[in-house]
Amino acid sequence: SPVKVTKICCIGAGYVGGPTCSVIALKCPHIRVTIVDLNQARIDAWNSDDFNLPIYEPGLEDVVRQARGRNLFFSTDVDKAIEEADLIFVSVNTPTKKSGVGAGFAADLNYVELATRRIATIARSNKIVVEKSTVPCRTAESMRTILEANSKPNCRFDILSNPEFLAEGTAMTDLFKPDRVLIGSLQTPEGISACQSLAQVYANWVPKECILTVGLWSSELSKLAANAMLAQRISSINALSAICEATGANIDEVSNAVGYDTRIGPKFLKASVGFGGSCFQKDILNLVYLSESLHLPEVAAYWRQVVDMNEYQKRRFSQRVVDTLFKTITGKRIAVLGFAFKADTGDTRESAAITLIKDFLSERAFVNVYDPKVVHEQIWMDLQEASPLVPLDNIKKQVTISPSAFEAAQGADAIVIATEWKEFRDIDWERLYKGMNKPAFVFDGRLLVDAEKLTKIGFKVTTIGRPS
Ligand code: NAD
Ligand code: UGA
To answer: For domain 308-463, which architecture applies?
Structure first.
């Protein structure tokens, strides 16, 4: 019969490990959950007295306040947590490789492998090892080989795949009421039994019919497939937004009309300045690499186009800003509102704002940037990484981080909305207008503001997916 899980260890206290295992602790008071990480600063933040957590996610603090110290613990003592646990989530980062074979495409599995090797070295009792990170199809096999080659006698490992589908900004609601929980296992009696152990954990709050159990490889591939198809919808609508701008059609009206078809559905059809986030691009490139390794070049090219279209969308938007501002932005000041890759998160990974600002800087414009949640240090790091050859001091001469949208707009020629923070819709636009150079331009990269209202104030408004 399946092992009843009483102690869980989660390796990786990031955007996935932190929220996911905090919710498990909240919903399963009988399970002791320890989230570990090598990064001391991150763990200190999770443990901070004033709950100044390392990631911003609406509703997260509340959950951590309820469970921390009761059955939820954060620690850098990775070995102790591994030793004690009967089930271990591996929730470490899997970024795109920057060098070596598959550079620019393949997932860097080094962190997964190091965590796996640590488990093999430390474990003295049976463990269920759960792949939570997003990984290429068949990674579980490599994990099993490593674990089995290094295991102690009488110590068995079962490997499960349990990909995470939460989106940042809505992580807590996604975790409380997931569309589905997916668990993949080998279809052996041991594999199925391990799968049941994990399913029982989720069954504490997820309805049974939403817990899908499948084969290991299907589970791994389903995660890449889901992200690829979500990103594909955005690239499709963004491709159509270019046609709208050239023809006079309105992308919001097109999305709405198309989304009314129940087979298509209304979600994820919002045109934008391009998708960002740590995963869409990474996971599609991963799928492209997988397809190429499997000698399926047509399949690789098909998915590749989703990323190419996204790059095109960002480029097209910065070009439109320059063209509209009388074909030069040299010496002009541009206020960029929003730096996070989407609203309600402080995360900036692959944010479109980074590319836009880089483009503006290369045109020798000045940029004021304001984001309600992103920490300043992160903005400097991202801008430096985007332009590695430009000394940071030079970047700082061109870029100012403003404490509010109002101050960002002071003395600016144009406002560019890069993130759909609600506060940008509700700000006092008349007040912003007064502080700007005239003509004052607004470029709405997020279909966020009421263009008519702003035009009445005096702004010249350019909206994605609408003709100028
Ligand atoms: P993250 O970078 O925020 O967190 C990963 C953490 O793992 C880091 O804090 C790092 O220090 C730690 N770590 C790395 N190696 C370690 C080791 N050997 N021992 C202990 N700690 C170690 O990453 P994330 O955003 O949480 O993503 C994790 C995985 O989940 C990725 O594979 C990602 O694709 C996937 N995923 C992410 C999201 C998301 O919204 N961010 C959603 C679904 C799936
Ligand atoms: C995405 C998926 O939605 C999650 O299911 C998945 O677990 C996660 O990736 C992951 O694997 O990391 P996330 O990147 O956090 O979640 O956020 P999304 O809401 O998917 O937004 C991604 C990007 O697409 C954002 O830049 C957002 O602004 C953009 N987007 C989204 C659009 O441009 N238009 C839309 O209609 C929707």
So the answer is: 3-Layer(aba) Sandwich (3.40)
